[in-house]
Amino acid sequence: MKKTHIILLIAVAAVIAGLLTMMKDLSTYDTIASARKKEGRFVHLITRLDKSAPVVYDPVKDPNYLSFHALDSLGGRTRVVYLNAKPTDFERSDRIVMKGRMNGEIFECNEIVLKCPSKYKDDPNGQMKAYDSASMKSREETAPQVQP
User: Fold this and answer.
1) Which tens digit of pLDDT belongs to each residue from 2-52?
2) Could you tell me which residue, 79 or 1, shows the higher pLDDT?
3) Residue 62 to residues 52, 57, 68, 106, 108: CA-CA distances in angstroms?
4) Phi and psi dihedrals of 57, rounded to 5?
5) Are the C-beta atoms of 78 and 31 separated by less than 8 Å?
6) CA distance 49 to 93
7) Does the first or last residue of the chain, that is N or C, have fewer Cβ atoms within 10 Å of its Cβ?
8) Distance from C-alpha of 129 to C-alpha of 92, rounded to nearest angstrom
9) How far is 71 from 73, CA to CA, in rounded Å?
10) In whole angstroms, how large is the CA radius of gyration of the chain?
11) What average pLDDT does the structure give for the chain?
12) Are 86 and 57 within 8 A, CB to CB?
């Protein structure tokens, strides 16, 4: 066998190994009901905080324990346990993307990504202020006119 063939085979094996490594990061978003069917398997959930249930977080007692209830877009509800510090502005978040596993009726979350409400804030005189997160200064922009 020629050296070029051996190098080509090694290169192909390296590409296949790289693709297999990346494929474990590729996943779709599940609902709470489908995550229950996949108990023990790693899933992604897009939910929102259930504000009718209490958020359990006591940084003095245990700063690495957060428990709350989450709702998905289909009305599914589950208790979530996150063994890490509570993310900043957790209660103000619009959506919560969670990565983890279902264990019975509890979602054991490994990672939380918060999807914040729009960065645009309404101004009383029909303007929208866009806040530049780097400088924390606002600039005026004309709000789009929406016809009912």
Assistant:
1) 888 888 899 999 998 888 777 665 667 889 999 999 888 889 999 999 999
2) 79
3) 23, 8, 15, 19, 17
4) -155, 120
5) no
6) 8
7) C
8) 19
9) 7
10) 22
11) 79
12) yes
Report pLDDT for 19: 81
Decide which of 26 and 63 is more confident. Answer: 63
DSSP letter, residue 20: H
Per domain, the residue ranges of the chain are 28-115
The angle at the Cα of 145, spanning 139 to 148, to the nearest 5 degrees, equals 145
Only one residue has tokens 């693709």, namely 19
| DSSP 3-state of 22 | helix
Please report the DSSP string for 131-147 in residue order: E-TTT--EEEEEPPP--
Taking the C-alpha atoms of residue 45 and residue 38, their distance in angstroms, rounded to an integer, is 12
3-state secondary structure at position 141: strand
Distance CA 34, CA 14 (A): 34
Class of domain 28-115: mainly beta
Q: How confident is the model at residue 142 (pLDDT cuts 50, 70, 90)?
A: very low
